[in-house]
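Hi R.,

As promised on Friday, here is the backbone we talked about, encoded as structure tokens. Could you run it through your design pipeline when you get a chance and send me back a sequence?
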């Protein structure tokens, strides 16, 4: 079994619980962003932020064309991310 397919369920649960314990309501994700950026850097990633604060983490690959897809966060400028109710009028 390769290292990439081995998952430590206790570590996975611990990481999940650590991350969800960080208060990060829409539009106020700065703290979770700092934590994630530090974790990415600890794994050897270079990090940058785009114009709206999304973290872009790049891990140096060993093969041309290999990519890793990441996720994003939605702040107050997302379609329903302002915390206000969507009008039904």
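Update: got your reply. Pasting your designed sequence below so it's all in one thread:
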């Amino acid at each position: 079994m390769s290292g990439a397919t081995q998952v430590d369920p206790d570590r996975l649960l611990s990481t999940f619980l650590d991350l969800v314990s960080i208060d990060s309501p829409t539009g106020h994700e700065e703290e979770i962003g700092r934590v994630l950026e530090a974790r990415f850097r600890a794994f050897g990633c270079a990090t940058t932020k785009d114009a709206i604060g999304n973290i872009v983490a790049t891990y140096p690959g060993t093969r041309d064309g290999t990519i890793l897809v990441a996720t994003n966060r939605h702040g107050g400028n997302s379609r329903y991310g302002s915390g206000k109710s969507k009008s039904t009028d």
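One thing I noticed while checking it: The two ends are 56 Å apart (CA to CA).

Thanks again,
M.
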